[in-house]
Amino acid sequence: MLAAILKSPGCLELEEVQDPQCPKGGALLEVSACAVCGTDVKMRKMGHKDLAYPRILGHEIVGRIAEIDRNCGLDEGDLVQVWPGIACGKCRPCQKEEDNRCREMKILGFNQDGGFAEMLALPWQCISRGLNLLPKGINPALAALAEPLACCINGQETAGVCRGDRVLILGGGPIGSLHALLAEAAGAEKVMVAERLQNRILQLKRHTSADIISEDAEASDSLDSLQKSLFSETEGMGADVIMLATPQIHIDSRLFRLLAPGGRICVFSGPGPENHSEPMDLRAIHYRELTITGAYGCSSRQNRKAVELLTSGKIKADWVITKRARLEKIEDALNHSADRSGMKSVVCGK
Fold first, then answer.
1. DSSP characters for 108-173?
2. By the number of CB atoms within 10 A of the CB, which of 81, 100, 136, 331 ranks highest?
3. By C-alpha distance, which of 206, 213, 174, 171 is closest to 190?
4. By CB neighbour count within 10 A (0-12 exposed, 13-18 middle, 19+ buried), where does 93 fall?
5. How far apart are CA 161 and CA 184, in angstroms?
């Protein structure tokens, strides 16, 4: 089979390798689509602490079952979306449907080969909770958005986004766009997105009801103008929820100025190394009843919810995909994501 193999940071090579075998109790997939995550772009360039080389990247996966060694209600030929977690299934978080917090967690495309290949072997742990049967006629590329959408569900559940909230999303890329769609579906009173790239602003205006704050939200000296624009949108109250959908935001107590009393900040995107080591004003947290929460990955339950939202049409996100490429052209897909010339790129199978 053909696979895109990361040999070392900066060295991604397309190679013909031996087809994987179906693991005992597991499954073998023909990969139909694997979307590109910002983490994939980062790993191609800089590597990752959880990687062992060589590694096939890709964790936003949809595939067709070629072989399955388990009686679980799925058959050969079924199109499935894959939750990429490999959890123990026995620990307290797993039993509480918080399996993204499993201490033994491994992830396809990180600790085990992922979906940037023609075939993918899934271990037995993936079968019971990690495969989601897709309806006939669904576009595999659209279904590949389920995992990033599930991560957004995790963030918004953690931050308690609910009907009537005023939600500010810092960053209007693929993740910020999915956050906007999800907050709208949750009944938010107002959704605001701070974004500076005009191509993304046009997409957001065309496909969402979000109010766009076209400030350079990634620049630390823009906070005053961002606050001015935000307060103009919220009668001087500020946001009930702030979702950090870019790693470029400098995280410190100045963000509290953007929050209404009782407001919540979700540290969703992993902050860059220069943006996360500042002291916090605990008095402001206390007196204004503020909350700071984090979100990393998604649970299998949230992944199932994302599949239902996408396949039912409750969330219409096909416009978020602005680049499709065959595996042979994976560099085009990765570069499309890296240079932010559009939104989401997807590597498509046969």
1. BTTTB--SSBSEEEE-HHHHHHHEEEPPTT--HHHHTTHHHHHHHHHHHHHHT--TT-EEEEE--S
2. 81
3. 213
4. middle
5. 10
- Which residues 6+ apart lie within 8 Å of 212 measured at CB? 172, 192, 193, 194, 195, 201, 204, 205
Hey, how many other C-beta atoms are within 10 angstroms of the C-beta on 350?
Answer: 9
Cα of 295 vs its chain's centroid, Å: 11
Distance in angstroms (rounded) separating the CA atoms of residues 160 and 291? 10
Peptide bond into 148 cis (omega under 30): no
Task: Give residue 187's identity as a one-letter amino acid code.
Answer: G
Give the bridge partners for 213, in sequence order: 194
Cβ-contact 297, 151 below 8 angstroms: yes
Element (H, E) at 80: strand 79-82
Q: Which residue numbers in the chain have pLDDT < 50? A: 217-220
Residue with tokens 């910002």: 38
Domains observed in the chain:
2-145+317-348 (3.90.180.10), 156-294 (3.40.50.720)
pLDDT tens-place string over residues 288-339 = 999 999 999 999 999 999 999 999 999 999 999 999 999 999 999 999 999 9
Per-residue CA distances from 25 to 5, 21, 167 (Å): 26, 12, 44
Distance of CA 131 to the CA centre of its chain: 18
Tokens standing for residue 133: 């049967």
The Cα 281–Cα 321 span in angstroms is 40
What does the angle CA 271 – CA 272 – CA 273 come to, to the nearest 5 degrees?
120
Task: Give the distance from CA 338 to its chain's centroid.
Answer: 15
Element (H, E) at 85: strand 85-86
Cα–Cα distance for residue pair 115/61, rounded to 1 Å: 6
CA distance 182 to 154: 11
CB 236 within 8 A of CB 260: no
